[in-house]
Specification:
By secondary structure, this protein is an alpha+beta fold. The protein has 2 helices and 34 strands. The strands form 8 sheets. Strands 1-23-22-21-20 form a 5-stranded antiparallel sheet, with no helix packed on it.
Length: about 450
């Protein structure tokens, strides 16, 4: 009897201890999960408070202004200064109609606009009229922006031919579209190229980053990442290239030889137990690199050593490439869209959300700042512009899907789902009217001169 009672007490004691241990384990797991999923801010990570110098602007709004890369500049900041700022109403000046998806924005060079559609057809268009100057098929599938440098376009493709699950990079004459050189790749590529100091940089789906000599495609070096490199590479002013990959790592490598400077992972996916994928092209500014991840977070790392400066959570995937800059009287800000249907303005130093604005649908493409307007597109075919300082809606149009707009300072070129639109601004209307008036005056002078010659 006594022994049975003692055994019962031991059993109850064992059950109690086990329950307490289980509660401690559950509490520890909950703590770890919530800690990993929450926002992070490390104020000790250096931040270069002085804003990056504004992008160069033409002395006049000239017809041959260059927008050379996806994201405008080599740092991929997606910020273009316009003075005075653009304001609606924006009127459709011309339309290039088609049936093929347009996912990435065109680039501008010479007096032309160069557009790569998803069927790997490259177009050269007159900016003023939209007239097709030439068209070349460079493969079977593409999803990137060309790069323009010194009269040459550099283009990556996902499929170089039907049934071939590998791409190529092609150098094409901007004047007439003839191929200067081409290199087949062992895998697909949707990485928008970058050109600097006579070298072309891009990534590919087998994790290889390439540096090719721009004049002939000679391979200067290769770097092998741990996952697919689908995004474009961003370059800072110290010869460092930055990119994320599908293993969930961000890397900094040397522009000169491709050697690794630093490599950092994430722990924001699957409740802190794995990393998401980096699809977004990074932006570099203020001594930081900024990019979103499919784990729903936007990350900021120090360019020098990869220290995590902050991590800010959104409600869903962040495929969108961010715009980063100091617009008007606002502090340095990261503007980025999320699959949760929200545009975010995040303090570039601390990661604190300055404002957020629900929009018409999920945002997959990058964000572009023109002047003090933040442009985005949604997957249900809207494009909008928000005030950079307030997030207030300034303009919307039922066109677009992925990456929204570029400009030459006179016109806004907007990606529809399959059509490309040129919207005139107040200044482009004035320029057009001024051109008409000048044409009328020249015609009147020619008529007067002809009349005088006839009556001599």
């Amino acid at each position: 009897m006594f022994s049975r009672l003692r055994s019962s007490r031991r059993l109850r004691w064992g059950v109690g201890v086990g329950a307490a241990v289980l509660l401690l384990i559950v509490a520890a797991v909950i703590f770890l999960l919530t800690r990993e999923q929450g926002n992070v801010s490390n104020p000790r990570v250096p931040f270069q408070a002085a804003p990056a110098p504004p992008p160069p602007k033409p002395k006049r709004q000239t017809a041959d202004f260059t927008w050379p890369f996806y994201g405008y500049d080599k740092a991929r900041t997606h910020v273009f200064a316009v003075a005075p700022p653009f304001r609606p109403p924006f009127k459709v000046r011309w339309v290039l109609r088609g049936r093929q998806l347009i996912e990435f924005t065109p680039v501008l060079g010479g007096r032309s606009l160069f557009l790569l559609k998803n069927n790997a057809a490259l177009y050269a268009l007159s900016r003023r009229t939209g007239r097709v100057r030439w068209k070349r098929h460079l493969g079977n599938l593409a999803a990137s922006s060309p790069a323009y440098a010194h009269g040459t376009l550099y283009v990556t493709t996902l499929q170089r031919a039907p049934g071939v699950n590998a791409g190529r990079i092609v150098a094409v004459s901007a004047k007439d579209g003839h191929t200067k050189w081409s290199m087949p790749l062992p895998s697909r590529s949707e990485s928008s190229p970058l050109v600097d100091k006579g070298t072309v940089f891009f990534g590919s789906e087998n994790g290889t980053v390439y540096a090719l000599r721009a004049r002939d495609g000679f391979v200067r070096w290769r770097y092998h990442a741990g996952g697919a490199v689908k995004a474009g590479l961003a370059l800072d002013g110290h010869g460092r290239l930055f990119f994320g990959d599908y293993s969930g790592h961000v890397q900094a490598i040397r522009e000169s030889n491709g050697s690794l400077i630093w490599r950092r992972g994430t722990s924001g996916g699957a409740f802190g137990f794995s990393s998401g994928n980096f699809y977004a092209t990074p932006a570099v500014a203020y001594g930081r690199v900024y990019l979103g991840n499919t784990d729903g977070n936007v990350y900021s790392y120090a360019t020098l050593d990869g220290a995590l400066a902050w991590r800010t959570h959104t409600g869903n995937y962040v495929y969108s490439s961010a715009a980063v800059g100091q617009v008007g009287g606002t502090p340095p800000t990261v503007y980025v869209g999320s699959y949760d249907g929200t545009m975010y303005a995040i303090d570039a130093r601390s990661g604190r959300i300055r404002w957020s604005r629900g929009v018409q649908g999920q945002i997959s493409g990058g964000v572009q700042v023109l002047g003090d307007l933040v442009f985005y597109s949604t997957l249900n075919h809207y494009t909008g512009a928000l005030g950079a300082g307030t997030g207030k809606t300034i303009w919307t149009v039922h066109k677009g899907a992925f990456n929204p707009v570029v400009t030459d300072g006179r016109f806004i070129f907007l990606n529809g789902y399959t059509n490309l639109y040129a919207f005139s601004t107040g200044r482009s209307e004035k320029a057009a009217k001024s051109s008409v008036r000048r044409g009328h005056r020249r015609a009147a002078r020619r008529k007067h001169a002809h009349h005088r010659r006839r009556h001599r």
